[in-house]
UniProtKB/TrEMBL annotation:
Residues of the CoA carboxyltransferase N-terminal domain: 1-101
Keywords for this protein: Chloroplast, Metal-binding, Plastid, Transferase, Zinc, Zinc-finger
Keyword flag Amino-acid biosynthesis: no
GO process terms (BP): fatty acid biosynthetic process; malonyl-CoA biosynthetic process
Gene Ontology terms: cellular component: acetyl-CoA carboxylase complex; chloroplast
InterPro entries: Acetyl_CoA_COase_Trfase_b_su, ClpP/crotonase-like_dom_sf, COA_CT_N
PROSITE patterns: COA_CT_NTER
GO molecular function, one term: transferase activity
Top-level taxon of the source organism: Eukaryota
Name listed for the protein in its UniProt record: AccD
Source organism of this protein record: Phaseolus vulgaris
Subunit record text: Acetyl-CoA carboxylase is a heterohexamer composed of biotin carboxyl carrier protein, biotin carboxylase and 2 subunits each of ACCase subunit alpha and ACCase plastid-coded subunit beta (accD).
Length: 101
């Protein structure tokens, strides 16, 4: 059987274009640094496409957290500890699942 591995995306500023769509937003858990600029397209392109103005903060990590596109905002100096805990937590439940089979 093919096991699905945990995929954690860590977004730093700027995360734009194809990286956002191809890698950044595909994670099982998406972490961003504070105030990270995250966008597939620029503000002007979005406004022209939608024919309406968008908020200047709509492409900032805190707004995307509020809308559910980002799971957590973690300052860089805390990332190592947070990612370590996530992997340990995931490993614990993966082992428990394997023991049941």
């Amino acid at each position: 059987t093919i096991q699905k591995l945990l995929y954690v995306s860590i977004l730093t500023s700027p995360t734009t274009g194809g990286v956002t769509a191809s890698f950044g937003m595909l994670g099982d858990i998406i972490i961003a640094e504070p105030k990270t600029y995250i966008a597939f397209a620029g503000k002007r392109v979005i406004e022209q496409t939608l024919s309406k103005a968008i908020s200047k903060n709509s492409q900032v990590a805190e707004y995307l957290l509020h809308k559910g596109f980002v799971d957590s905002i973690v300052p860089r100096h805390l990332l190592k500890g947070v990612v370590t805990e996530l992997f340990q937590f995931h490993n614990f439940f993966s082992l428990a699942k394997n023991e049941r089979n």
